[in-house]
């Protein structure tokens, strides 16, 4: 006789009849809590959507309802609850910005999901063309001209036309079932890229970090390590692995070293940081050691 095995979790049935959970509600109505849980099973990225208020003060809220709508013209949407403190700003704004948070910006997501918090004191940001704030260290950002506001139940759907955007080599923050998560291969690759008396660094809002990616190549992928080197370094050789360590979250980090003719950082995050004091300027203690190791190797090579 065969043995029956459960191959999947039995689905919760949120349409209520006369019996079972929620008995007493009219037949055919939906259980709100169950509906929330079911909707929460849809895994998403996490954004903070921002706009500039008429008084010049920025407003923003954590949102996972961000969706791309159209490529031609380039349209995106975000849904905002009418009860949100930032609703009046978005009800009037001519534009907004969508900050796609990176895996290490969980705290930013929490702050911007907290009504009444002193939100913008907790992040480094600058205004884009629409005036809406874009944060340092995000995985991607979209600056949007307000195209349409559509009333939809207890939310308003704001549709924007993308007039500027950017992307970084940072892994995105994820959200599912009420929990934050990160898409992580378990391996991170960083590079100490040196040209003369400077190394390439990235300011992520909490301090200087080494350029870091989840994959080594190809060089035409700007999110890969080779792509980062190709973009920001001139005349770079082939990176050689130098140092490795386990991160507090269990990921394994390999740090490469590469010499280049020149560094060409641009934008608000990328820096050519002087070698003198560079190690101590790194925000992550494990990167401090990696930079020290890379620089002492360079000294040995020269002597
Ligand atoms: C991961 C996550 C995603 C969220 N997505 C949305 C969303 O898409 N739309 C929305 O109105 N609120 C969303 N919220 C809730 C708002 O961030 C929250 O209500 C916040 O307090 C709004 O800020 P405000 O009241 O200062 O405007 C989300 C919260 C979290 C934690």
Automatic annotation (TrEMBL):
Stretches for region Disordered: 1-23
InterPro entries the record matches: Flavin_Rdtase-like_dom (IPR002563), NADH-dep_flavin_reductase (IPR050268), Split_barrel_FMN-bd (IPR012349)
Superkingdom per UniProt: Bacteria
Keyword annotations from UniProtKB, A to Z: Oxidoreductase
Xref: Gene3D superfamilies: Electron Transport, Fmn-binding Protein, Chain A
Keyword Iron carried by entry: no
UniProt entry tagged with the keyword Oxidoreductase: yes
Domain Flavin reductase like as annotated: residue spans: 39-182
Signal peptide (from-to): none
A Pfam family hit: Flavin_Reduct
One annotated GO molecular function: FMN binding
PANTHER family: FLAVIN REDUCTASE, FMN REDUCTASE (NADH) RUTF
Identification of the protein by name: NADH-FMN oxidoreductase RutF, flavin reductase (DIM6/NTAB) family
Organism (species): Rubrimonas cliftonensis
């Amino acid at each position: 006789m065969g043995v029956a095995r459960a191959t999947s979790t039995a689905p919760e049935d949120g349409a209520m009849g006369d019996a079972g959970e929620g008995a007493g509600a009219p037949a055919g109505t939906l259980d709100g809590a169950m509906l929330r849980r079911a909707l929460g099973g849809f895994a998403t990225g996490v954004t903070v959507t921002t706009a500039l208020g008429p008084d010049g003060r920025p407003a923003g809220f954590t949102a996972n309802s961000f969706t791309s709508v159209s490529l031609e013209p380039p349209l995106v949407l975000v849904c905002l609850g009418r009860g949100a403190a930032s609703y009046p700003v978005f009800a009037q704004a001519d534009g907004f910005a969508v900050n796609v948070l990176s895996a290490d910006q969980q705290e930013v997501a929490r702050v911007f999901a907290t009504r009444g918090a002193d939100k913008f004191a907790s992040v480094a940001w600058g205004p884009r063309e629409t005036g809406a704030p874009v944060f340092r260290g995000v995985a991607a950002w979209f600056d949007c001209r307000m195209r349409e506001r559509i009333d939809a139940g207890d939310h308003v759907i704001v549709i924007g036309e993308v007039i500027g955007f950017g992307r970084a080599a940072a892994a995105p923050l994820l959200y599912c079932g009420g929990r934050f998560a990160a898409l992580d291969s378990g391996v991170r690759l960083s590079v100490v890229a040196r040209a003369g008396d400077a190394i390439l660094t990235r300011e992520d809002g909490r301090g200087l970090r080494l350029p870091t990616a989840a994959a080594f190549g190809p060089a035409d992928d700007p999110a890969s390590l080779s792509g980062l080197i190709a973009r920001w370094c001139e005349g770079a050789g082939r990176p050689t692995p130098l140092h490795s360590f386990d991160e507090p979250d269990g990921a394994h980090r390999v740090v490469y070293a590469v010499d280049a003719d020149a560094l060409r950082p641009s934008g608000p995050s990328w820096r050519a940081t002087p070698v003198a004091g560079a190690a101590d300027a790194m925000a992550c203690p494990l990167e401090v050691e990696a930079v020290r190791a890379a620089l002492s190797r360079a000294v040995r090579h020269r002597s």
